Amino acid sequence: MVGQHQGGEPSRRVDWLELFGTATTFVMLNLLWLFGALLFVTIPALTAALLACMVPWSRGEPLISPLATFWQALRRYWVRATLIAGLDLVLASFILLNLLILRQMGLNQLLPLAAAVLNLTGLALLAVANIFGWALLVTQDAPLRVVLLNGARLAIRHPLWGLLLTSLIGGILLLTAILPRFFMLTVSFAACAYIVQWGAWHIIRRYITGDDQPQRGV
Prior knowledge:
It contains 7 helices and no strands. It has helices at 2-36, 43-58, 66-105, 110-137, 144-157, 159-178, 181-204. 28% of the residues are buried. Helices cover 81% and strands 0% of the residues. It has one domain (2-207). The chain is mainly α and 218 residues long.
């Protein structure tokens, strides 16, 4: 029994060291995103890089060379990430403009009310499509058009799961505004990225082919 006790101590110590290493890496990635995002135009590229770092963790695997993974993903995805962000901005602005116009018309009539519900549904689907689209960007080796189409298909097929993930992310961002700055500096953005990647992977893995790539027609 003494031998078993002595043998268990090093193993327990290794587990704590691994947990500490994972936690410090998590905080480091959060800080990298946060300070890089001070330049507003870099946010899409930084988001893609942060999501790429979450891929191994979302699959229960260790993250090897986090800094190298982050910078390589930053260089690889910055163009496509910026295009996705630009498309999001255009679509969201269009929907919000429609809602503003409908508000000026008044929602006491049936037609404007139905149009408002349709626009809100479109906004929700856009949010869900972003969950899957951003995760696919760093998961699927495919042209941007294919990534966007697959993200939209997954949003239509799994809207409730996507809305749940969107709500979780919204909750974290709300806590970020309420809790002390320490939470924002150490946890919030990396936690959002992990939820996106883990939650999307929960669905994406159902469509994985033999070469570990999602099917192009998911």
